[in-house]
């Protein structure tokens, strides 16, 4: 995959566990690699098929200075989130956040964390048999789109009989193809949270 790289971008920001770090601030250094297909931009000169690295560098500085995080892990995670949301061309992000002025009383060059995240496709089965099933499925799709889950395709909806020996109404079912940079565990937790927000109560286990 083609790559755009920004190396040793310096930012003065206010992240750290200690109060003095959030008050006085310190220097942070970012190394960023973005994977995306540059073929159309290279062949046609179409700027919309590329990422403006100057603007991206300015965005990174702004985002770093918008909050005060205890951990540079949190900072890196939030930066990756913003990159994916702002630049849909990006398929993979590798970001190292360096903290050369880390409060460590030993001779060292820097402390850093490196996070790597990439977009993946997944298929999610939806089903509802409470209240208005069609409205419930619509609400689930809306909430998924709000949670770093891009809807690619949706199937038609079909009615199915309940399974598992519990007497209940028929289900309205649908399958959705999505794209997300959330890992499988994060995706599952996000979907369970959406269920709970929509009133799902898990009282029966089929395992």
TrEMBL record:
<dbReference type="Pfam" id="PF01288">
    <property type="entry name" value="HPPK"/>
</dbReference>
<dbReference type="GO" id="GO:0005524">
    <property type="term" value="F:ATP binding"/>
</dbReference>
<comment type="similarity">
    <text>In the N-terminal section; belongs to the DHNA family.</text>
</comment>
<dbReference type="InterPro" id="IPR006157">
    <property type="entry name" value="FolB_dom"/>
</dbReference>
<keyword id="KW-0808">Transferase</keyword>
<keyword id="KW-0289">Folate biosynthesis</keyword>
<comment type="function">
    <text>Catalyzes the conversion of 7,8-dihydroneopterin to 6-hydroxymethyl-7,8-dihydropterin.</text>
</comment>
<keyword id="KW-0418">Kinase</keyword>
<comment type="pathway">
    <text>Cofactor biosynthesis; tetrahydrofolate biosynthesis; 2-amino-4-hydroxy-6-hydroxymethyl-7,8-dihydropteridine diphosphate from 7,8-dihydroneopterin triphosphate: step 4/4.</text>
</comment>
<keyword id="KW-0067">ATP-binding</keyword>
<dbReference type="InterPro" id="IPR000550">
    <property type="entry name" value="Hppk"/>
</dbReference>
<keyword id="KW-0456">Lyase</keyword>
<comment type="pathway">
    <text>Cofactor biosynthesis; tetrahydrofolate biosynthesis; 2-amino-4-hydroxy-6-hydroxymethyl-7,8-dihydropteridine diphosphate from 7,8-dihydroneopterin triphosphate: step 3/4.</text>
</comment>
<feature type="domain" description="Dihydroneopterin aldolase/epimerase">
    <location>
        <begin position="4"/>
        <end position="117"/>
    </location>
</feature>
<comment type="similarity">
    <text>Belongs to the DHNA family.</text>
</comment>
<dbReference type="GO" id="GO:0004150">
    <property type="term" value="F:dihydroneopterin aldolase activity"/>
</dbReference>
<dbReference type="InterPro" id="IPR006156">
    <property type="entry name" value="Dihydroneopterin_aldolase"/>
</dbReference>
<keyword id="KW-0547">Nucleotide-binding</keyword>
<dbReference type="GO" id="GO:0046656">
    <property type="term" value="P:folic acid biosynthetic process"/>
</dbReference>
<dbReference type="GO" id="GO:0003848">
    <property type="term" value="F:2-amino-4-hydroxy-6-hydroxymethyldihydropteridine diphosphokinase activity"/>
</dbReference>
<dbReference type="InterPro" id="IPR043133">
    <property type="entry name" value="GTP-CH-I_C/QueF"/>
</dbReference>
<dbReference type="InterPro" id="IPR035907">
    <property type="entry name" value="Hppk_sf"/>
</dbReference>
<dbReference type="Pfam" id="PF02152">
    <property type="entry name" value="FolB"/>
</dbReference>
<protein>
    <recommendedName>
        <fullName>Bifunctional folate synthesis protein</fullName>
        <ecNumber>4.1.2.25</ecNumber>
        <ecNumber>2.7.6.3</ecNumber>
    </recommendedName>
</protein>
<dbReference type="GO" id="GO:0016301">
    <property type="term" value="F:kinase activity"/>
</dbReference>
<dbReference type="GO" id="GO:0046654">
    <property type="term" value="P:tetrahydrofolate biosynthetic process"/>
</dbReference>
């Amino acid at each position: 995959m083609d790559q755009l790289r920004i190396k040793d971008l310096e930012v003065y920001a206010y992240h750290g566990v200690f109060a003095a770090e959030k008050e006085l601030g310190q220097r942070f250094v970012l190394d960023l690699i973005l994977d995306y297909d540059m073929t159309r931009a290279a062949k046609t000169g179409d700027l919309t098929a590329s990422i403006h690295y100057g603007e991206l560098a300015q965005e990174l500085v702004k985002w770093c200075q918008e909050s005060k995080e205890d951990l540079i892990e949190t900072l890196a995670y939030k930066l990756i989130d913003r990159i994916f949301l702002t630049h849909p061309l990006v398929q993979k992000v590798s970001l190292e956040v360096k903290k050369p002025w880390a409060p460590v009383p030993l001779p060292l060059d820097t402390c850093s964390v490196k996070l790597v995240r990439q977009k993946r496709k997944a298929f999610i089965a939806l089903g509802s048999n409470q209240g208005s099933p069609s409205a419930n499925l619509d609400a689930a799709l809306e909430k998924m789109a709000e949670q770093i889950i891009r809807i690619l395709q949706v199937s038609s909806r079909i009615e199915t009989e309940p399974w598992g020996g519990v007497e209940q109404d028929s289900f309205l079912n649908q399958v959705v193809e999505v794209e997300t940079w959330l890992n499988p565990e994060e995706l599952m937790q996000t979907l369970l949270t959406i269920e709970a927000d929509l009133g799902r109560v898990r009282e029966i286990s089929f395992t």
